[in-house]
Amino acid sequence: MPIDGDPDDVAESGISTAQVSEWLRGCGADNVVMMLDACRNAGRKDGKGIGDETGRECKQTGVISLFSCSPNQFSYELPDDGRGAFTKVLLEGLGVQGGCATVARLDEYLKRRVPEVVRDYWGERVNQVPYSIAEPINKSNLILMPQHSRPEDLNALMDAFRAEKAGDFRLALQCWLRVNIASRGLDPEALDEIVELKVKLRQAATTPVKSSSMPVTEVPLPKGNLGGSKPEPPSGNQSVPKSPAPQPPAPKAPAAKPPAPKPTTPKPPAQHPLDAIALDSEKGVDYRKLRDLLKAGQWREADQETLQVMLKAANRVSDGWLDAASLKIFPCKDLKTIDQLWVTASGGHFGFSVQKKIWEDCGSPTISLKNWDQFCVRVGWKNQITTYVDYSDLRFDPSLSSQGELPIYVMGVGWDARAGWVMFAWCLFSRVETCEI
């Protein structure tokens, strides 16, 4: 409905979603995503459900569509926010907080967070569950936000595009270009495929089309007898010319040898983004185990390994924990290496620098009051009633966890009532700022 539309005359003043979909498909974009957040205050009497017709249209046209609620549900607006719950969570998911790179992860985030936000405002009696349409199914692997992408996102995307390729060089080139963007130019396989496909496209454009008909050979007719009559016999005094002696066939030139095949260089294995990070340490700490755990997506084990490498860097292995004094002089080079590994592996979802930004957004709390509770709720360390959650109840998954949930083990998860967490966080994040991370 446009701003000057008439809600009482939708047919005349409104714009159909089919028309919007057609405009989007004609804009020239490689892929189109349509997001619909309708704040509805009345249901339909026919029971067919709001959005059914739009859903069918999107399936037919192949437009990726995200709907604020399921058919027969209402989409709610937040009274103190001025936006719909769907729009609020959508911006979270596309931003650093949600870190959703693909359509599938964004859909999962919306389905989890929107009901939570709606229940916080309206109670358990109200339900709003978004749903999405991404057909064909490989469109769910498309990367919307490259800065949030993770290695497994690229693998799923490449698998889908390989299956879709089927000899369509132009389509395959578009797909690999998208992989290259999502990998920030760090995927050698994508670069090789792009070069190879451009060569194939040039060859296809310059190769003439071969005719399927058989070649026709013209046979010359003998001269002087075009009418078809018999030739006159020679007179008596006229000698008959002898036919020339047959000439021996000319010797055939030796066949040219086929060119020797050029040696092919095997493609180097694709480099993981974490492999590009220098594992620098001022104290000679080996960060390969932490890197490998993060590469494998073993987030809980990587969280616990983070404490071990920080104890080594601070020379407090025998103590088993970090104090404020050790944090104030913690080696900047080591802190930067640890943070880079976490931020890169999680696509900007985890890491000390990520936690520091949220901590600052919550007022940089230094005492355990309201601002600290707000910070802990934001990063998932406390629930909505500001009670600390158990370590085993954390999600340990960038696609499910709150932004900034990890690392946490270094905070001292075994401390009674987490009494020292506020001071620890202040010392840690102050060091992050001092080290310019």
Structure notes:
There is one protein chain. The chain is mainly alpha-helical and 437 residues long. It folds into 3 domains: 1-145, no CATH class; 149-206, no CATH class; 279-434, no CATH class. It is 41% helix and 3% strand. The chain contains 15 helices and 3 strands. It has helices at 10-13, 17-25, 52-61, 85-94, 103-122, 151-165, 169-182, 188-206, 288-295, 299-313, 324-328, 332-346, 352-361, 370-379, 421-434, and strands at residues 33-36, 64-67, 131-133. It has a 3-stranded mixed beta sheet with strand order 1-2-3, with helices on both faces. α13 (352-361) crosses α14. The longest helix has 20 residues, at 103-122. It is flat. The model is unreliable at 41-49 and 211-231 (pLDDT under 50).
Topology:
Elements: H1 10-13, H2 17-25, E1 33-36, H3 52-61, E2 64-67, H4 85-94, H5 103-122, E3 131-133, H6 151-165, H7 169-182, H8 188-206, H9 288-295, H10 299-313, H11 324-328, H12 332-346, H13 352-361, H14 370-379, H15 421-434
Parallel strand pairs: 1-2
Antiparallel strand pairs: 2-3
Helix pairs in contact: 2-3, 4-5, 6-7, 7-8, 9-10, 9-12, 13-14, 13-15
Count of DSSP-assigned helices? 15
How far apart lie the N and C ends?
46 Å
Spatial arrangement of strands, main beta sheet: 1-2-3
Derived structural class: mainly alpha
Q: Quote the average pLDDT.
A: 76
Global geometry: flat
The description of the largest β-sheet is: 3 strands, mixed
The total count of strands amounts to 3
Radius of gyration: 35 Å
